Protein 1
Amino acid sequence: MNGVEKKTPSGLTALTNAWLGLVALTLVSLGLGQWFHGKPWLQLLVAALVWLKGHVVARRFIEVESCHPFIRRVVNGFVAVTPLALLGLAYFGAQLARWATL
Amino acid sequence: MSVVAISDRGASAETQAGWRIPGNKGIWVGISCEFVEFLVLFVVYFVSRAHFPEAFAEGGEQLSRLAGTTITLLMVSSSYCIACSVATLRAGRRRASLAWLGAGLVLALGYPLTKYFEFQWNLAHGITGDSGIFFTVYYYLTLNHLVHAVWGILGMLWVLARHLGGAYTVDDYSGLEALASYWHATDIIWLVLFSFFYVLV
């Protein structure tokens, strides 16, 4: 891929949609925490929302799809690590605590 | 949506294989280091939370979610404005690009301001770094992020001054795009911190 989208008004529309999506996801995640605090499946949902928000910033704002593979891997890897760690902590928290005990 | 090739001369570095490097290689060395630094800090968070799950379950309820939400909205909005600044400059609309960059800077300045009020609120409610493991980790990570955000704000001031001086054109905007990349990366990190401390799970 050797080209990028020229940012025309339609490009700004895509950025605006991404921004509105991020605002909505932020408010939704707050609401979920309030309404379903303590539910076992909430960790899964929060992890998914963390990944989705990072993915939107990476894809729409950084335009990571057209970036050099190293940059793409670094950004996508960073975006994926935290949700995976949140899930790992939710299901294997006690084991992690044992491993991390001096 | 039209797709056109952008000149690689000064716009954003382009490799022989045709992949883009937004901004320049130097900023991506910095961003990679920033990611590694925060991954280490995240390990601190996860290990602490694994050892003290109750403290982390209860700690978030004592923080100001209004402050956390405000900072999140400021960060994503500022990031959006900077992305629009790059987009409009690519489209040859320099004045619009300057306006978007200025708006991004104003919104970004709201972050340290909100953080100041949040820390005042914390102190008024007896929340300090000694209030427990959750709050020690909270101050450690969020203050670290604030430092990175201040670097980004200083970068915005520098890029805005250069932009006003006509340093960036439709063919050469690598400095603006480097700043944008750094700010988006800092935004991604904040979105993680928001879920760590302000979203109840």
Protein 2
Amino acid sequence: MHYQHLKLLEAESIYLIREVAAQFERPFLLFSGGKDSIIMAHLARKAFFPGKIPFTLLHVDTGHNFPETIAFRDALMAELGARLEVRYVQDSIDQGRVVEETGPYASRNGLQTVTLLDALAEFKVDAALGGARRDEEKARAKERFFSHRDEFGQWDPKNQRPELWNLYNGRHKPNEHFRVFPISNWTELDVWQYIQMEEIELPSLYFSHEREIIERDGVLLGASDVVYPVGDEVVKRQVVRFRTIGDMTCTGAVLSRAKTIDDIVEEVASARVTERGARADDKRSEAAMEDRKKQGYF
Amino acid sequence: MTQQMDLLRFTTAGSVDDGKSTLIGRLLYDSKSIFEDQMDAVETASRNRGDEEVDLALLTDGLRAEREQKITIDVAYRYFATPRRKFIIADTPGHIQYTRNMVTGASTAELAIILIDARKGVLTQSKRHGFLATLLRIPHLVVAINKMDLVDYSERVYEEVMDEYGAFIAKLDAQNVTYIPISALLGDNVVEKGANMDWYDGPTLLHHLETVNVGASVNHVDFRYPVQYVIRPNQDFRGYAGQVASGRVAVGEDVVVLPSGLESKIEGVVTADGGLEMANIGESVVLTLEDEIDISRGDMIVRKRNLPQKSNRVDATICWMSDEPLKVRQAYWVQHTTRQVKGFVSELNYKIDVDTMHRSAATTLGLNEIGRIQLTTTQPLYYDRYQINRVTGSFILIDPATNSTVAAGMIRGKSREVEDLLLDEAGDESGRPKSTNVVWEQEGISLAAREERHGHGAAVLWFTGLSGSGKSTVAKKLEQVLFGMGVSTMFLDGDNLRHGLNGDLGFSGADRQENIRRAAEVARLGYAHGHIVLASFISPFAADRRAARGLLPEGRFLEVYVKCDLEVVKRRDPKGLYAKALAGEIDNFTGISAPYEEPEGAELVVETDLESPDEIVARIVGRLRDVGILGGGE
Ligand SMILES: Nc1nc2c(ncn2[C@@H]2O[C@H](COP(=O)(O)OP(=O)(O)O)[C@@H](O)[C@H]2O)c(=O)[nH]1
């Protein structure tokens, strides 16, 4: 399987990843364990072949990750021979940097931002590569490839640097940093077709499996220690897969029988709901994403 | 499932309420790129605002500030795909105060949709959009005449817009313009034809987007490889990572590294998917060279016989993008390919009113203003004119105090002196060519198709030698033989060019150089149209001949040195020129009072005082066969 447009997107992404390695002193790659960050790691490996990936990967662990994600992450790092740093939201809570939401609907997703910004400061990171895409959400449609953050890690949508041709301006003052999104131009379908074309391995969560599910506000959440039934909610065994992998408290599954990449590509091509549509946290308010981005979330 | 799906980047510009957002919403909706939850969100938002109908425009208006003001203020990127193509839309606002956003969106686009409201006809804004699109050299323009439903789908309205806009755009250097009458709201001619405009027999907008030739603006000829990053995992491997900016290169080819000028050969094209024989335009690869050369980021690898221009003073058009106005003679960072050098604007020649295209004197440029400048850099730039290469011809300026990107620039050429600028004809601001540029794929008919039709390869045979050496005799004789073989030929010499095209030039060094430059550009055009061009010029300076060679791909420029002893030509003196020169009546006469630099490395050397014209012609034909330009060789 060979897709011309994917080769073009790949070449563009590799160009951007190399620009980061060349223009910054301490770039890190943010690794969430999801398919987009797996693709980022894959592209980074290709960008520097036959050399090794010249930057460290950083994982912000909410403590609410699916166990499959962590196992997969560690295996991948060993295969790439890459350096990994992990920082825990739990530590931020213990240090009193953040206050944990309580109650059955509590999510640590919002808390990640503080842990992330602390980690970026700790490692003096000047460029953080991320796997966000513009098609995920409207507020991202105007995001730059090289997105400037002020010394508080904040994004100012009105004051973005123009990006022309393939000239990326990464100049910055001490204490400022950049978020860089090399796969901005990819859509969800592109990602899946690329996984298919490149035969990239993914955590089993992405494939159809049977799991205990709680339906909450139309979102199917996996039952676990942190997600348990409230009120008249019930736990049901259902055949599902995940379209994104994040915090267990807010990542929704979809009913699916797609067992292989080919099945998924077909399913995504005919899907009627965006992958973010299955995330509880985006539904909180119309401009939810934009607000979180301004604070330094991705 | 289509595997050959490719990619088209296009930009849309329109004035407020022309229906741009509606059009994009419709393209996304009709191509099934809108998901149910997005549609639900839009419906909810429309209802919350108290609108009666679902506003498709909300699908594309991202940020809150914009939603409040109800206008798009930045560049937003949208995606949709059909089985044939993936599309990336750079959606930009159309107001004059967003000129910089339009320039940004246009910089990577291969097609621009200019929306015109059928009821309002061609407005100043529509012209501005066309001007910016041609300035940025977007190869395809689509003028979408919208809201046809509100003018009774009138063919006359369509034709009026087409005539008026056509007359305007003809003054610019627009490349391919297509006019499509649509109704974004109701869908006519967007995806489906609809039943209301039988008189229109052109493509629907989507069909046009799906079939237009992509890659038309890219330069497939001149190999340029700006080095991004050096990969050195161990002592035995040293590779240069980069993306091929234009042209291509194959393993084994001779290359030069700039600025050092060191030469080597391509040893390998390395990728994680295995080695390649060739690196093509747009590919991100790693090159290795046969020799150990010190190369770093910002260097450029090019073919030995196809060099870019070099100068630390360039003539450029810039668009100012910052609230802080331009400061002439103040230092900025110049980012050009993968290099950053310090530079300053040494002169601001004029600014251009984007609505009237009028030029006026200026001392500074403010936000959204466009001007012509002379840029001086501390180290020379290795560039091509923007017109022939959008990658090596573009740059940005960065303010060293704030690190903001403050300007986008397009290189027009080497700086010339002020007097030259005053001689410039008005109206060439879109980068109207001084010579033209079409060696790469043209819209419609490719070089390959022309060559196939002609039954032979295209090439330029460049005959150089003293006046009276027999260049034109040989070239004309050769042309007759080739013509008799059915070859499509073209003949150029000093006489036929100086009568017309070069009538303004004399014989000073500068004029001679310009004479050859123009001749070479004409030859290149002939080549691009599939001919074998026979160009016969004294062309005494090696640098000028090298420049001519640089316009053509490797192997398609054959230099023929027509050698003849000076004493013999003096005796022949067919036009009596040597006699006059010797008598001092003619200045700057090559061989007598001006130098002739003998070619080194010419593909063919023929000696008219030793061989007969027939022998020479036979020898050249044999060579054309050997190198495969004519059939019937090895
Ligand atoms: N009748 C008609 N109205 C249209 C058409 N296209 C857009 N409109 C209307 O024109 C108005 C402005 O459209 P919008 O897409 O928001 O314009 P924008 O400012 O260019 O993005 C809206 O009320 C649309 O419904 C069309 O083809 N026909």
Protein 3
Amino acid sequence: MEYLFVLAMVGLAASMVAGGLIVARLVAPHKPGGLKDIPYECGEQPIGQAWIQFNVGYYLFGLLFLVFDVEAALMYPWAVVFRSVGLAGLIEMAIFVLVLIIGLVYAWRKGVLEWV
Amino acid sequence: MSSVVTSLLVIVFVLFSLLTTASLLIWLERRLLALWQDRYGPNRVGPFGLGQVLADMIKIFFKEDWTPPFADRPVFVIAPTFIVITALMSFAVVPFSPSILVSDIDIGVLFFLAMSSLGVYSVALAGWASNNKYALLGALRASAQMLAYEVFMGLSLMGVVAITGSFSMQAIVKAQENIWFIVLQPIGFVIFMIAGIAETHRIPFDLPEAESELVAGFHSEYSGMKFGMFFVGEYIGITLISALLVTLFMGGWHGPFLPPVLWFFIKVFFFICGFILLRASLPRMRYDQLMAFGWKLMLPLSLLNLMATGAVILWSS
């Protein structure tokens, strides 16, 4: 039942946003053509497209993010039942975090965290 | 049945007040910045320049809503709507008072984190769909930054969750009746605040839209209503982070004498002004400093904070 309200909120928020776009489409002028058809590059003629390959550094950070986000996903349920699992749970989680921190230190030493 | 009607009224009230607040905040920010930087700010339209809000709205609606022919059309249109919808949806779990809230789902904190993750798509897709080099660079910066700061944004909240033993926002607020979590979790509070500023890419973390380097970053090619969406989305984002800081760390609607709703709004307003003061006083970070700060300092610190919190909870019980 509670989730139905969330769903109602999604619907209303989406329709408000869509409403804004539709109203703007109806009242705003529309004059295509001219220099508007060129990507903005401070007055220079753009060379080539912007859809190109980009720095591999971003992928490495993406991978790191994946590792730590999955870790966080495991920690959420642990935090909720924290009081009932007690000391054993804390020690297990500490070992788990330690393994991940070793991974972070490895990436750090390898220079992945340096931005070039 | 009456509870359903009440909840629906709350939803409509929340949505409308948020959109109004967002446009008022644009005015408030310009006035406060002017005050702190010894300028006038908008003061011509109406009393104290308040008519500026209306003038801006009219302008946004009547400007050409341009979709460039070189862009990826459907993605270009969808991207700006995403940031507004996800930011608005996060308010579904924020308790404004003991009785005024849209939905007290028992995964409130997780819901907020999920919505803030979805916000990344908006920025990344907008930059990619624009087919503009500045926009692409802005989008790449934004995604790397938001991913980095999202990790420990979640981790910084785990201390609060461990103390309360629940993800429900209302339960977290009720657990703060005697002592606010900012006292028990000062490091968590600071980490969450920094991550929140980075997630909304405000100064000093506004690299995705650094004007002096990238024109307007990921929204360089946007104009009219779609640009307005990014603008409004940013201000709703600030309100959201302030509301969560209040809910999770500053006792939510708890407070003496005044009604709870009023306390909530006073605290949120305080944090919003804090965000604006940051913008008035701080320079922009360099990109490598930003990434190093996130991965090398904040992430280990938030993990340590969580382990220490766990140890202290066990010690005291």
Protein 4
Amino acid sequence: MRRHLREDLPALTTTATTSASVEPPPGPVLQEGRRRLVVESLGIAVAAAGFGFVYGLAARDAGFSPIEAMAMSTLAFAGAAQFAAVGYVVGGVAWPAILLLTFLLNARHLLYSAALRPWLRDVSLPKRAVMAHLLTDEAFALAIGHFRRLGRTDVTGYWIGAIGATFIPWNVATLAGVLVGGSIPDPTRFGIDIIFPAAMVGLAVGLITGRRELVAALAGAVIGVIVALASSPALGIVAGGLLGPAVGLLVPAAAAHETAPIGTPRSAERYAMPGVHVDDEPLVEDEPLVEDER
Amino acid sequence: MSTELVLLAVLMLAVTYPSRALGILTPGLDRLPHAALDYLQLVGPAVLSAIAAVTVMVVVDAGGRSVFHIGIEWVAVLACLAITAWRRNLLLGLIAAVLITVVAREMGLVALPGI
């Protein structure tokens, strides 16, 4: 049964009384927890590096300079939004529209952020400000799983997942992709031009967790193509991205069959790069994020 | 070396960071309305599929008109879609898409795209 999305998140004011603490648990428990976190992080890092490399190639193919590609990866630091931005720029989409779609595409992070709030409430404000910038689908999934296994907050564990597994591999690979891409003669001969649309489709598949998402994806594609043919590719992309969700919402909630509501660890795994599984523990379908840690 | 898009990256940071920080930094932040959350959950699939579909199905001709395009790219992207959905592995899907495209072009089944 599909839940109200807000039920996935702890009420911020009430969860301030949870047992979450920045004090790490005793040595052996912490060591075992971090060992497992590192193992999980390695898989994420490999995937992030591979995907970052492809982003670098796509950015270069779209005419981004190395500085511009790296600025996206360090400042925006949002894989799907960055790939989308490449498509927007190539399609000639106006910047305000790019920013609107970027905001909408990344708005799900608000839910991850709210879900982490009880765990990080005792962390200093400057650290939390930095943690927020590094909060991605993968970082959230790694952190929330790690904290829950420990039963406590582990700031070092957060850095391992957010910096070691995602930020560094993503940015190093982006730089490699945008630099090496120039040494590949005639990229179309090697099928590099197909990587971008194929990656977009693959990422979309990872986001489809119910009938509403499926309908929204199909509607977005159809509307996008129709509007693109009638006007321009840029307008088509914007129209598909904004109107597709509206069509998806026509599917009644009772018939949506949502399997991974946004804001849950499972949704983070689905939003992360397909093929990456950060936690092989089965999650109970209606398991709340933090309340069970009390 | 062009730096024009650095400003776009800064602006993308400006619209992304609040989503990441509000929950962590703002105590007592109330949650978004149900309808807004439902809409936001659907934006990702819609915008990504729109980008993919427009990229492989629409090309701009020399006259600046958008024209419908049919090519091996369709097969490659559909193969990626199927493999990613089946194996939950984007890397395998991308490899298949590239292989299909390269083999088809080497065999002369389709001409190299002019873009």
